[in-house]
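Hi W.,

Here's what went into the run:
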Amino acid sequence: MPYPAWLPFLLETPDLTHVSTPLELAQKEINLGLQALSAGIKGKVTCDPALPRDAYRIVKSEQTVQVHGGSCGVLYGTYEVLMALREERDFPEGLQTPQYPDRMVNCWDNMDGSIERGYAGKSLWFSGGRLQYDEQRILQLSRLLASVGINVICLNNVNVHEPAQDLIDLQLPDLSKLAALFRPFGIRLMISIDFSQPMRHDLSTADPLSHEVQAWWKNRVDLVYREIPDLYGFLVKADSEHRPGPFTYGRTHAEGANMLADALASHGGKLVWRCFVYNCTQDWRDRKTDRPCAAYDTYQPLDGQFRENVILQVKHGPFDFQVREPISPLLLSMQSTNLAMELQLAQEYTGQQIDLYTMVPMWKELFQVLPKDRLCAIAAVSNLGASDCFTGHPLALCNLFGYGKIAWNPSLASGDVVRSFVRLSYDFSQEDRESLTGCMLESRAIYEKYTANLGLCWMITPNQHYGPNPDGYEYQSWGTYHKADRNAVGIDRTGSGTGYTLQYPEALRELYANVASCPDELLLFFHRLPYTFVMRDGRTLMQRLYDDHFEGLARAEQLTKTLCALPFPERDRQEIQRRAALQVSNAREWCDIINTFFHRFSGIPDEMGRTIYD
Ligand code: GCV
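Here's what came out:
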């Protein structure tokens, strides 16, 4: 039984025999969809080669709805027609074009079928060391991705372990077959590669300035493009968390990335280079090194040195997808380099698709400070897997849906995106729809309150990254410290501290560096403050830590009650209820452990006299 996700009216996967282009697919989809919706109108799709690739225009007359679009726009316009009809809203007027031309999903799938930071079951396409998949599932997934405009999928983990290194050596014909399945949906494949790959082929070095290495990559790329002429390109994690990279040879990351970009250039391929570079073997006693400074320090001096087909992919915050981080200053400072912002749909630090956590409101905060034309692409670490609904928690699908919507148009309001998801996915009364939308919209704020609030990060269980462990990362080598002691907590990251705020443009630098203007949610990210510090609302820091945790737990309990009372279809109900119960016990552990942790240090009682376990 196919899982319909937010396209329940398109239960059937269209017969794709002889379908090889988005136009042919769009023509099938519009007829199928209008029929399924009993819309009583005819559909017509025409491709206008003069239009930009992804653009479309919808024109409605009495009896017909017409989609005119570019080569992929025809498909995006078609899904928009169907979703608008289903949502009973108007069609968008005028020419529709996406904000970002490349809207990518990065899958961290390993070839043994496991998924790094995957919370939705096994890989949908790897098993037992090779490509192996159910075609119907791939088609369902492609349809979901295309319906929200996602157009690039990176298949394998950025940590390229054996045997994934064989993907572009031994598995090309199989990759080519998979590429053909995604192609009519306008989705192009990308592959993560290992920087030291030539050394598995009898070369003694992977130095990017070696002619032999350059020739090896050129030859390899030519072979790959012979099989998959529309491959999007390569994704690279280099000199990061023990992965090989140009630093081994005393080369810069511009030299490393450009060498690969040159090999890809004649095929129109892109080289996506991740900027997740920091010292992961830091001594916790070292108070000078501050991990959030690392990406800017490494890449900002290289601005303008990258080839045209290189895209630097930067995580949205300076750490690693914590519940709250300020925007990465690198994203604001590179003026002459192509940039992609990396989001994470996989809920690694945000509840692992057990706790409800809807991300759209969090992303909207980033777009408020990011200049509109700053990015040429956007990427998100996938939350997909082979679970029935693709994301383990059926409501985690909203993060995939919302990502596509926001990647197309970052100006959309969070409420509108989530409301659309709910409306499309469930046949609820208006009251129930609003109640579910409300739960989803407040889920991030609730999670933040019962876990690490006020900009505290890394209080999570090491490695596993679920559940509380406030000192778990405190004496480790990952550069992830809060430095709580009996008087104070947090790190001074201003000019008189680690200097991290100096990486921001002036307005943000001032905002964050000044305790009086720094938003409460980021206070302990930027400042070290005593527990007796009086916050804007008159409460002490210690009291706010207690209050937020109690409030977070109470709201999580209420949220799960509301969720469990909603009339979800049987296919989703059990999973949602099971996860809701786990969320409440997780919230209780967080609340009690964090409150106890700070109480033991500070000795300050809760003004409200609530139970704090000692
Ligand atoms: C793919 C974090 C995660 C790792 C991940 C890494 C990255 O460190 O815990 O699992 O590795 O980020 O983004 O490369």
